[in-house]
Amino acid sequence: MAMNKFNVFHWHIVDDPSFPYLSRTFPQLSQQGAYHPYTHVYTPADVKMVIEFGRLRGIRVIPEFDTPGHTQSWGKGQKDLLTPCYSGSKPSGTFGPVNPILNTTYDFMSQFFKEISTVFPDAYIHLGGDEVDFSCWKSNPDIQKFMEQQGFGQDFTKLESFYIQKLLDIVATTQKGYMIWQEVFDNGVKLKQDTLIHVWKGNKLQYQSEMANITSSGYQTLLSTPWYLNRISYGQDWTGHYQADPQDFQGTDEQKKLVIGGEACLWGEYVDATNLTPRLWPRASAVAERLWSDKGVTDINDAFNRLSVHRCRMVERGIPAEPLFSSYCPREYRGV
Amino acid sequence: MEAIMCMLSSGRCTPTHLYLLLLIIIALGFHTVEGVWPLPQTVTTSPERYPLNSQAFYFGYGRQSAAKPGCSVLDAAFKRYFSLIFQDYTSGNGPLRFNENKPFTVEVSVDHDDCESYPNEDSSERYNLSVYAGKAFLNAETVWGAVRGLESFSQLVYQDEYGSYFVNKTEINDFPRFKFRGILLDTSRHYLPVTAILKTLDAMAYSKFNVFHWHIVDDPSFPYQSSTFPDLSSKGAFHLMTHIYTQSDVRRVISHARLWGIRVIPEFDSPGHTQSWGKGQPDLLTPCYRSSTPSGTFGPVNPVLPSTYQFMTKLFKEVSSVFPDSYIHLGGDEVDFGCWKSNPDVRAFMQKMGFGGDFLKLEAFYMESIVNITSALNKTSIVWQDVFDYHEQIPKDTVLHIWKGTGYKAELSRITKAGMRVVLAAPWYINHITYGQDWRNSYTVQPLDFSGTDEQKKLVIGGEVAMWGEYVDATNLHPRLWPRASAGAERLWSDEQQTSSVDKAFPRLQDFRCLLVRRGIRAEPLFVGHCKHEYQGI
């Protein structure tokens, strides 16, 4: 990252499949929720080391604790956190998103985010808020009752907003700013003015109009949609990443100023340490130039020549960045 | 005992038997023998398990074995497989284990003493493996079959949660469905260091691949250092010192492959794909013309000059002696006629030969000459399907390599109908990456699903998984190749009916992938999940 002048490490540290973050306040979360409680966890010392390693390179570390969806692994170590799904009138044994109607949920979140705000020094925390599946909430009679009481009818986006609102208020008391995925904005949740909204969905036209909407509402925004590097394909796909411009949408100069940047994402369904580095580099370098350099730097052929040199430079420095095309690096294979 | 017998003969289990069996399974931590990848032809297993202790574990030669101590292939295999089986082994004293030092011996018997030879197209890889208390019997016709059996045995051994090693009572009778099961590596688009090639050979052996198709030279670079024509690499390699394969590098690859029972088939592709050849061999390639003057660029090998065939004869003479396999791949694909057409000498030659304006005839003339050269050297040729498609007259024992993606089933029919043997690569171009679990595409290929008689189907001698090098070098070779290539490996080794379910294959392939990682192969993940022992590098 530092070789490419990236300056933010967005650590999507926990999600459905596993919870590797060892929490001092709730050690059961990783005890029960990690793939293995010792070999597959990040201890407080590990986290400190990552943060310091980043700091020395001028890289901010922003953790993401994504809720209320994407939380299956949280429920292993924290009973009653997730919503029990029902099949008919009986619990089915499976669980859904975080349960938004219990006070214990918010007590937990308060304590949890209090810890997070002290562990991670950056001013921002990413709170997720994406892809919430409503079917489990719908099946649960207690939730149905709550919906009625609150006057939400059958509109579960209102319940989602209810949860997010309370969560954002909790996090705000820890003096942190927050980043959230675009759904939270799309669903009309009331956000603090300094919220960063993270755009990840849609085709080009859709994300361009989303950027326009968000900035016209006065929020700062971050683009990721065209930069999902986990989506691999055959050939030189870096060219597509290189051409995407986060300020390329219909809007005023004031709006464009609200685009604070972008983020290349390498989601982990098909990625681990065996293939992480070649899959990330040098494709992420195309994004790096788009985010650092002047918007007029767009010549693809020139970029190819320079990126080839840059790729060999990374290889020589011990980063196994994959090749762009047939060729060689003069000083490769020293360590492979 | 009744419960165990009930397991082996399905259908006669009462609920109490099943419950008891379940208890036994849970108590013994039953490890399914479908942990062998590729799936053996027949496998019978039992929950009865035997402890293994690295301090008292032995490989031995059976009394009736034709291969004896001193057999290079098996001695090396025993050493390798000991470490592969006991991953935690350190040569000091291990921690005290509280089971008795029950010795376990794997007794290997081989019918033919072929230890010092190279595996060939007809080598039997059949083996049977019987695992009992304290002893396993591995019988095979050849040492190559024994190596396959050792690989299966190594995959039967597992550890419980305390790290103790076990192997279950097992009976395996196994042989490959197809005799030719290959991997193609391209060392011209990107140079691959010898270590990367050796590592690939190791991973190939774990999946029972038995042919390494070395596409060693092509347009971008010529890394093969020829003793007869040293300028080919000194002028044609990416770098004449750091990006070449010396004769000793080549020997190293061939001998490493031999110990794994892997054949090495080199490809010197011509007349197309030869740009790099022209750097060190002036007058080899056809000069292209722009109307009546040479344009400065060059095209395919020049088929009209006698010097071309003198050169090829000398080169293939060297290649034939350097590479011991009886097969040699001559390429013959994707010849662009534009340059030949532009050259007046070539056109004149066409007239003289009565080819008219049909450049296919010229290509045929060239390929036939090359095949004759290699036939005279006692080699069997493999060529790309283009050679057949262009109606070239080639010896009946030439093998055709099917690579074109569209209509490969029709091609299979056509070529086998003409009585020629084929190797299928078309559905296994795994250099073509896509997002998601594309190993399933490799797994569900049905190589014999084309219209033809049984006799025709017998002519499909096997298949090949290809990793072309345009976007691949040692930084990303291993994760791109494994475990996706292993899906093709099972298709080529195992019985198709027993391996038709992708859903059943998934957990087995996940486990196999973790085994590869444990053995130091950077096999990428299939999906979300984890391995007990993760890859520790960057």
UniProtKB/TrEMBL annotation, chain A:
Residues 1-294 form the Glycoside hydrolase family 20 catalytic domain. One of its GO terms (cellular component) is membrane. The active site is at residue 131. CDD domains: GH20_HexA_HexB-like. Keywords: Cytoplasmic vesicle, Disulfide bond, Glycoprotein, Glycosidase, Hydrolase, Lipid metabolism, Lysosome, Signal. It is an enzyme of class 3 (hydrolase). It comes from the Eukaryota. Its EC number is 3.2.1.52. One of its GO terms (molecular function) is beta-N-acetylhexosaminidase activity. GO terms for biological process: carbohydrate metabolic process; ganglioside catabolic process; glycosaminoglycan metabolic process. The keyword Lyase does not apply. It catalyses: Hydrolysis of terminal non-reducing N-acetyl-D-hexosamine residues in N-acetyl-beta-D-hexosaminides; beta-D-GalNAc-(1->4)-alpha-L-IdoA-(1->3)-beta-D-GalNAc-4-sulfate-(1->4)-alpha-L-IdoA-(1->3)-D-GalNAc-4-sulfate + H2O = alpha-L-IdoA-(1->3)-beta-D-GalNAc-4-sulfate-(1->4)-alpha-L-IdoA-(1->3)-D-GalNAc-4-sulfate + N-acetyl-D-galactosamine; a ganglioside GM2 + H2O = a ganglioside GM3 + N-acetyl-beta-D-galactosamine; a ganglioside GM2 (d18:1(4E)) + H2O = a ganglioside GM3 (d18:1(4E)) + N-acetyl-beta-D-galactosamine. It is found in: Cytoplasmic vesicle, Secretory vesicle, Cortical granule; Lysosome. There are 3 forms of beta-hexosaminidase: hexosaminidase A is a heterodimer composed of one subunit alpha and one subunit beta (chain A and B); hexosaminidase B is a homodimer of two beta subunits (two chains A and B); hexosaminidase S is a homodimer of two alpha subunits. The composition of the dimer (isozyme A versus isozyme S) has a significant effect on the substrate specificity of the alpha subunit active site. PANTHER family: BETA-HEXOSAMINIDASE, BETA-HEXOSAMINIDASE SUBUNIT BETA. Belongs to the glycosyl hydrolase 20 family. Hydrolyzes the non-reducing end N-acetyl-D-hexosamine and/or sulfated N-acetyl-D-hexosamine of glycoconjugates, such as the oligosaccharide moieties from proteins and neutral glycolipids, or from certain mucopolysaccharides. The isozyme B does not hydrolyze each of these substrates, however hydrolyzes efficiently neutral oligosaccharide. Only the isozyme A is responsible for the degradation of GM2 gangliosides in the presence of GM2A. During fertilization is responsible, at least in part, for the zona block to polyspermy. This is Beta-hexosaminidase subunit beta.
Automatic annotation (TrEMBL), chain B:
The active site is at residue 334. Disulfide bonds join 71-115, 288-339, 514-531. Keywords: Disulfide bond, Glycoprotein, Glycosidase, Hydrolase, Lipid metabolism, Lysosome, Signal, Zymogen. Its EC number is 3.2.1.52. One of its GO terms (biological process) is glycosaminoglycan metabolic process. GO terms for molecular function: beta-N-acetylhexosaminidase activity. One of its GO terms (cellular component) is lysosome. It is found in: Lysosome. Residues 1-35 form the signal peptide. Its main location: other. Belongs to the glycosyl hydrolase 20 family. There are 3 beta-hexosaminidase isozymes: isozyme A (hexosaminidase A) is a heterodimer composed of one subunit alpha and one subunit beta (chain A and B); isozyme B (hexosaminidase B) is a homodimer of two beta subunits (two chains A and B); isozyme S (hexosaminidase S) is a homodimer of two alpha subunits. The composition of the dimer (isozyme A versus isozyme S) has a significant effect on the substrate specificity of the alpha subunit active site. Hydrolyzes the non-reducing end N-acetyl-D-hexosamine and/or sulfated N-acetyl-D-hexosamine of glycoconjugates, such as the oligosaccharide moieties from proteins and neutral glycolipids, or from certain mucopolysaccharides. The isozyme S is as active as the isozyme A on the anionic bis-sulfated glycans, the chondroitin-6-sulfate trisaccharide (C6S-3), and the dermatan sulfate pentasaccharide, and the sulfated glycosphingolipid SM2. The isozyme B does not hydrolyze each of these substrates, however hydrolyzes efficiently neutral oligosaccharide. This is Beta-hexosaminidase. The gene is hexa.
